[in-house]
Write a structure and sequence with these properties.
Elements (H helix, E strand, L loop, with lengths): L2 H8 L6 E4 H10 L1 H8 L3 E12 L7 E4 L3 E4 L5 H4 L7 E12 L1 E9 L1
Helix pairs in contact: 2-3
Length: 111
């Protein structure tokens, strides 16, 4: 499923969890298995400070938060992504996915 597909699927859904980036990362560090059971496939509103905004061509566009959360965006969100900058505090909604390059959320939108 594409990031756009995920974003459309969760657009009207209220978050199952509202967490800080530090909290969700701490949960994954404590137990990846338990955190996957808690967050995977759920709608999550995560907040934190931006450490990287990637809008290149090699990978899916993403915003990384300082604690170690990567929010993957669809190309449709590019107009929003250009307004984001490193050091900015942000809240993003996405679907919990897995631990890969940090804790990954898919189909993200800025709230």
């Amino acid at each position: 499923q594409t990031e756009t597909g995920v974003a459309k699927e969760i657009a009207d859904k209220e978050p199952d969890f509202e967490v800080s980036a530090a909290r969700i990362v701490a949960d994954y560090e404590a137990s990846e298995l338990d955190a996957d059971q808690k967050y995977k496939g759920k709608v999550i509103l995560v907040s934190g400070v931006i450490s990287e905004v990637y809008r290149g061509f090699l990978y899916t566009p993403y915003v990384e938060l300082e604690a170690g959360v990567r929010c993957n965006f669809s190309d449709n969100e590019d107009p929003v992504m250009v307004t984001l900058s490193v050091g900015q505090m942000v809240s993003m909604k996405g679907r919990g996915d897995r631990l890969l390059f940090g804790v990954e959320l898919r189909g993200c939108t800025v709230e």
